[in-house]
Amino acid sequence: MKVQLNSQPRLNKRLQVMIQAKEVYLSSDIPCQIRGCAFCNQESDIQLENPIFMLDNEILEQYIDLIEQSNINNIVVLQSQVAYFRKRQQQSQYAQQMINLIESNFSKKIYVYQDEFSIHTQNGNPLILLAQWYNSHRQFLKTELDLCLLTQNYQMHQQCKNLNIKCFTIQDYVKLYENNDLLDFLGMDEEFEQNQEAINNQFPYIPVEECVQQIKQGLLFEGRISIDRNNIKLARIFVKQFQLEIKINQQNRVLHGDRVAVELLSEDQWEQQQKQKEIKFDEDDDDDGNNNTHTNDTSHEIMSTSHLQNLFRKVQSQNLVPYGKVVSVLQRTERHFCGHVENNIFVPADGRYPNFILKHSKYDTLQDKKIQVQFVDWPVWSDKPLCKLKKVLGKAGDMYIEGNVILLEHQVEIREFSHQVLACLPIEGDKYRISEQEIKRRMDLRDILVCSIDPVGCKDIDDTLHCRRLENNLYEVGVHIADVSHFVKPDSAIDKEAAHRCTTVYLVDRRTDMLPKLLTENLCSLVSNVDRLAFSVIWIMDDQANIKDVKFGKSVIRSVASLHYQQAQEMIDNPNDNSQLTQGIRLLNMLAKKLKQLRTDQGALSLASNQVKFSFDDETHNPSDVRMYQLYDTNSLVEEFMLLANCSVANQILQRFPSISVLRRHQEPKMKQLKELQILMNDLGYQFSFDTSKLLSESLDQIQRPNDSFFNKLIRMITTRCMNEALYVCTADVDYPELYHYGLAAELYTHFTSPIRRYADVLVHRLLAASIDLESLPPSMSNKIRMTRICDKLNMRHRMARFASRASSDYHTYLFFKNRPQQIDQAIITGILTDKVTVMIPRYVLEGTIDAQIIDRMNIIIQGTRYRIFDYIQVEISVELHSFHKKIHMKYIKNNN
Amino acid sequence: MSLKRQDGRNLQQMRNIEFKLAIDLSVDGSCLYKQGLTEVICLVQGPRAKTQSELLLIEYSVSPFSNIESKRSSKFDKDYSMFAENLKESFENLIILDENGKSEISISVCVIQNDGSSKSAVFNAITLALLDAGVSMKDFLVSVTVGLDQGNLIVDLTQEESKTAQGELTISYQSRKQKIDFYELKTLKLQQQEMDQLSKLAVSKADEIYQWMKEEIYQIKQKQIDQ
Ligand SMILES: [Zn+2]
């Protein structure tokens, strides 16, 4: 057995380079997996058949759609290739698609050869060495071997020629062997002339290596391009290293999300930063959402060079905004774009991206379609980037297709569940019955009056409750959650798929499930009058809702009623209803109010969201009404017990697994923004302090205006926007006091109550089951590094899901107002910008801006009339959709009286 | 399909073991022991006339640069002094000193580099250094580390594997008596059946190591005789 020593430089936590030795043990027993190879003689589920292909990274990255649709069915990929793509899976949709192809593995036979451990693929290009080794198995096969290597690399072609390995470029291969329709997936080729002149304002890029040098010397700055959603000409980078924002005035062919090198312009071209007082209304839509910045050691080194020191001093003291130009793209954004076609121009749906030139053989077939494309190049002579077709999505304007576009643009997985995933479901399908044996292992709670309370039409019911009076003024309260982890076994195909999707995504008119329908709407959904498996939390409480005891356990329940909020509210309010169930709900309601009081005393915030609800016209399926959600007491009833269950579970799992638990934490709010709000509130004569969440909560309670219930809600919405996002964390990374959940004022918090639609909850169920010795913890969950990575992914997916929901809501708002031109409604002035004000229409929770003359930070003049902030005015509404975000045009209507 | 570990080894494959005896001629016995990237050096003085009350002195140390990445913790320090005690106990029972109790032996052992399974490397290095010093022993003590990682039984864990393993068991084993001497189990949670499997695997691997070492030492002795 041969040993090879590798030294791989890597970065440690403080970004210092560490060189770590690593041993690799090479072996010769890794099989080729060709069907019937007498040399390797391996029985396995993968048996490769002619023709067999090997593909280089460029092809796997750039032509994956083509591969998917081609007759290339037997593929050998290298373990090192998979590792390369897996590493970039999060940032790159290209890599993600490649990993999907390998993991789904149902249409193609893909064999991952462990080249890193093979004695045959060392010291040279592993693809060529492997092809050579495969060819040497010819003599052990009964049939002729047809092995083909696809690469775009000229050198590799030469080598293959010498070694008698069949080798093609993708273009040649497609022309020789495939259907001509695939040619459209190849993109540009020779036809475009290379030697055209650079157009104005564009110049060739500095080579990447040179940039890296200059960045180190502090001559160039590195950052990710962020382009304004409403104005593509506005671009900026944020240099994390120096906490410095640079505006870009010469974009030189960049796309939103590119990692670029920027050179500063001379100072006379900079701009004085206007001291703007504005309450930022748009949620921070930074895609990586990664706001924690480290200043590392090297930054101090660079900082000490004198020219930079002067620069930073000047920027800070004079409030300057430095301007720069892009001199090189270090790494292009690796995402796909959805949009539509106008002649040979592709118009992306996301307004942060420019129009592309699309090459296609039949433009007329694409005219009214939504399509997905991939970036190819942006030559210096072109004012637009070039792209190639990936996929035709369907007819533009079709509500379903538009929904797909929203999902794709937010990287939501919309493929069907693969047959491997479906194979994990119980074979009896919807005839599944719980076995007697399973019931014996569990608490049998089927004789307890358990019910669920959800929104109208909820099909995936994951929580139910019960309450009964015991002796001595004590109560038994139970929360019973769908036992999803009973059906989703660790590391099974269905588990991996759920871990990939992370969450169910809700659009206004549809749901994209994390788990197959059979589980979501049937076996796991805790509907009434059927036996269902549950994971229960049962407390003993006194009449002040103090917890005397808590226990956890798996159970069987039989819900007696699937109620919706309004129904449950009516039962509580109906004095003639004294059924046992109603009494139970009344007790729950009473205890929920006590719990809420306890939480409020602790300093929990109650904030408002701007979520709206649509009603649909049955015939046209167009939205017929938009309203704020109506909340009943019963909403809060369910919420209180879910919060309590989550807290109890968080305590339990952390105690048992201090270093690998998955919790949810909410850090302190953005103090700068709260400070601005405080000044404004004080000016208006309200007390406003936010030193603790309790003080903030109390401040919010007393901000009231007579005859205006919306005002308080509005201030809560504005406060919500000062909050940080709550995040999943693996407790390996965070110490105890930092696990605090600010908004809920909870020492520890986690997600346990919605396992049907959130993967985090599935993980927590497993931790909880292991903590009470019901099941052993799956091996993969004891890996801290892996758990941390999973949490990052959960956070990213949840953020994307939220943006997708908002985009969908915006789209439907747009449809609603499109059919109702010139609506006039009342709006409240919510903020003052430099030359306009932001206003909100309470009825639809719609926001927009109106031109105004600013007097000071409280007073303004609109068309000759003087107003103060938070005054009401009349506006006319019209809506236009731009880059998913509704663009609200509001016109001021002068009040005649 | 052949399942490979992070470093390309098969599940129950040891890393390569190399050792050199008599590396320091100023002492009575010495050994440089390498098991993959884990490296231990051991020096033995004695048996010689007694100067203190104790028969056996063991000095166990870990080089401050030994750990490939993680740093020391207070937990580590506690573990550290405990292990020195364990070593002393194990070898005290094994070494045959003259009947009058007039001689003593001192052992100094140091982990130069730790890439996992360092405790078993320490045991093995001491045994070899004692052999080099010509100290007579009642039995041949060998040691091995095994573990359960991602549901697989593996042997000779690297540092990386040690971090992710659900359970890690180190034993020292008296090969002739076929008796487990030192037994240390680090685990998050294992079932009885899994623990039994681990112990069984550890014993069979320890025996393999014993057979191999015996052969190696025989070869070395042969060479010395030939010269
Ligand atoms: Zn073969």
From TrEMBL, chain A:
InterPro entries per the UniProt record, alphabetical: Dis3_CSD2, NA-bd_OB-fold, RNase_II/R, RNase_II/R_CS, RNR_Ribonuclease
GO-annotated molecular function: 3'-5'-RNA exonuclease activity; endonuclease activity; RNA binding
A single BP term in Gene Ontology: rRNA processing
Compartments reported by the entry: Nucleus
Residue ranges the record marks as coiled coil: none
Keywords: Nucleus, rRNA processing
An example Gene Ontology CC term for this record: nuclear exosome (RNase complex)
Keyword Nucleus: yes
Protein name in UniProt: RNB domain-containing protein
From TrEMBL, chain B:
Record's GO cellular component terms: cytoplasmic exosome (RNase complex); nuclear exosome (RNase complex); nucleolus
Stored InterPro entries: ExoRNase_PH_dom1, ExoRNase_PH_dom2, ExoRNase_PH_dom2_sf, PNPase/RNase_PH_dom_sf, Ribosomal_Su5_D2-typ_SF, RNase_PH
One annotated GO biological process: U4 snRNA 3'-end processing
Signal peptide start and end residues: none
Protein name, UniProt field: Uncharacterized protein
Superkingdom: Eukaryota
Pfam families noted in UniProt: RNase_PH, RNase_PH_C
Similarity section: Belongs to the RNase PH family.
Domain Exoribonuclease phosphorolytic: 13-135, 140-204
Organism annotation: Paramecium tetraurelia
MF-aspect GO terms: RNA binding
